[in-house]
Amino acid sequence: MSRSGREILLGVGGGIAAYKSADLVRRLQDSGYLVTVVPTPASLNFVGSATWEALTGRPVQTQVWENVHAVPHISLAENADYIVIAPATADLIARLAQGRADDLLTNIVLASAVPKLIVPAMHPEMWHDRATADNVEVLRNRGFVVMEPDVGRLTGSDVGAGRFPDSGSIISELSAIVGRTSDLLGVKILITAGGTREAIDPVRFIGNRSSGKQGYAIAQAALARGATVRLVSANCDLPIPQGAQVTPVETADQMQDALEEFFEDSDVLVMCAAVADAKPRNLSEMKIKKKDLHSIELVANPDLLATISHNRKAGQIIVGFAAETSNLELHAQNKLDEKGLDMIFVNDVSGGAIFGSDQTHGRFLFKDAPGIEIAPTSKDTLAHELLNQVRNRLS
């Protein structure tokens, strides 16, 4: 599952107001959201799939029985951060209230636990009908946010409550929902991920086993919570988190340059990358033949964390990681103190554990609070726990 924190699944109901959702798609994109449209089959009588695909640049599915191998009602539900249904007809509202799953959109709604915004649009008599009012009340009691429709001109010469709200009003309502779930909105987070490589010659290097999975998981989680993310990526072969600004680097010196460029404007630094402690004193421009490869003279790389922490401004938070094979807490505590960190996560990598895995375990240590033990869990879960601790310190 790839989450950016800005993924909107836009359901389009079968009413004449469906054409107005084309403008809503554009306005959502202008606001930085990534939009996937799921129209009901009835709505295709008003706006066809080609329109939604052209506007979003994404494929459109309308039936549960399309691309069955991908299990679309689950995959689309898992990828969405928010669901907006606009317009929502009286029939669609009734089906949602009954918990029915008779098309792709209603299947997705049942399969998703993310916040849901319903934007009704229908004739005034239908909106004021007792059945519709009861159905709206049911949805609101279940946690759906149901907007009040506008009052104005409708189909033909009719005027009254039931008009589709303008795009700005819908996005304002969505922004209020996002504000309640995006606790890091506006926070600038700088994250390093992966492992640096120090060249010996054109074909060999000194490196480490870090895959970058934990750093990328933190980037994804931070994006999902509204943060602005800059990811300094060292030799990672992973999908780029949508919405992140990515700076690729290879060596410790290049990572230091990136930190010096971006740290000053960041609120938080999460130093997840494994930085090589040393590099060859001399880089051979030609491949060293095996018979001549007797020894490599090394020099220490700069201590990136210690250097950057000395240049921090008041209020900036620095998070470190420690991969150890013995005396975990002692080594991590020393690193926390010596490098001036706010918190550090340490884990046991004996026998190559953790590196390249989707699972992790270890312990958080803090400069101002008791440590927290983390039982075996996913790196995604650890990412959110780390950000919980960051949020607490920011506030």
From TrEMBL:
Report the residue ranges that make up the Flavoprotein domain in this protein. Answer: 7-184
Task: Give residue ranges for domain DNA/pantothenate metabolism flavoprotein C-terminal.
Answer: 185-392
Q: Name one GO cellular component term.
A: phosphopantothenoylcysteine decarboxylase complex
Q: Annotated Gene Ontology MF terms?
A: FMN binding; phosphopantothenate--cysteine ligase activity; phosphopantothenoylcysteine decarboxylase activity
- Which key words are in the record? Decarboxylase, Lyase
Report the SUPFAM superfamilies cross-referenced here. Answer: CoaB-like, Homo-oligomeric flavin-containing Cys decarboxylases, HFCD
Q: Which InterPro entries match?
A: CoaB-like_sf, CoaBC, DNA/pantothenate-metab_flavo_C, Flavin_trans-like, Flavoprotein
Listed under GO biological process in this entry are: coenzyme A biosynthetic process; pantothenate catabolic process
Mind telling me what this protein is named?
A: Unannotated protein
Phylogenetic placement of the source organism? unclassified sequences, metagenomes, ecological metagenomes
